Amino acid sequence: MDEGELEKTMMGFVRGEADCLVTTTIIESGLDIPTANTLIVERADRLGLAQAYQIRGRVGRSRERAFAYLLYPSAEALTEDAAARLTTLADHTELGSGFKIAMRDLDIRGAGDLLGDEQSGHVAAVGFELYCQMIDEAVAEAGATGEESEEAPEPLRFDVPVDAYLPASFIPFEAAKIDVHRRIVAARAPGDLRAIRDELSDRFGPPPVAAENLLALQRARIELRLAGARSVELRGGRLSVVGIELDSEQASELREQVEGALYEWREKTASVRVPDEPEARLAAVLAMAEGLREAGRSPMVEKDMLPAS
Predict the structure, then answer these.
(1) Which of 4, 55, 240, 285 is least buried, going by the fewest C-beta atoms within 10 A?
(2) How buried is 263 (Cβ within 10 angstroms: 0-12 exposed, 13-18 middle, 19+ buried)?
(3) The pLDDT of residue 306
(4) Cα 241 to Cα 227: distance, rounded to the nearest angstrom
(5) How high is the pLDDT of residue 207?
(6) Is 157 strand, coil or helix?
(7) Which residues, other chains included, contact 301 with Cβ-Cβ below 8 Å and sequence gap of 6+?
(8) How many alpha carbons fall within 13 Å on the CB side of residue 13?
(9) pLDDT tens, position by position, 209-224
(10) pTM score
(11) Residue 212 burial by CB count (10 A; 0-12/13-18/19+): exposed, middle or buried?
């Protein structure tokens, strides 16, 4: 229907000009029709749980007792997930059951690819490091133990496109992946990262390239944070580290350590041009971190954590 015909049909039903309205799932979009007291859904097994819940909410919106009939071919023909969705709807009919249904929907469908190479939602928006810190802070506030905890360092904004994650083929268990990610992000010294890598090798075998990149980038974060960096980003083929304070001698040392490196004292930014290649991006980040360390901006750490370039 076009918009004019659609509006005419709906208004006629609301005014009582018709006793029955045949519609698609468009009816789920928040329509309030107090006079509607009976709902019949054909092939309810094909609807998602949240969608079916919204459609069911189109009736029972006034004092009249309402009925919702969810039809499907047969119990034997239902998939396991479809049966779980319909059972959830049948079990939660009381007012305010939306949260329980949402949690059940999460159990049925899963949480998604939270820590893979196709991140989405909050993690992609804020970065996993800040996301973990936000969760830790929320847990600490909820615990309210009264014990003083060590203040977490300011998150380092990191915007460099590098494949750095734990592949499902390496760690197939989502809970284990989350735990390892949390430990990597919480590491404050290269020795911690070396222990994590040794444990991963022992439990899951040799880490793949993406996992090695994740460890290497966290080591670079440690050094860059100690150097005072507030953000690291790659824009227009140039890697910039913002928040660095160097004197003339240290700036000269950085140029010796990192070929082509520039330091802008007004902007407190160290930068270097980077070829448009994935391997070059990672190498540039690691080189900048090591160069700042050699320039005296962070303590000496073991070089064996750096992967061969």
Answers:
(1) 4
(2) buried
(3) 45
(4) 10
(5) 92
(6) strand
(7) 189, 190, 219, 222, 223, 293
(8) 18
(9) 999 999 998 898 888 8
(10) 0.51
(11) middle
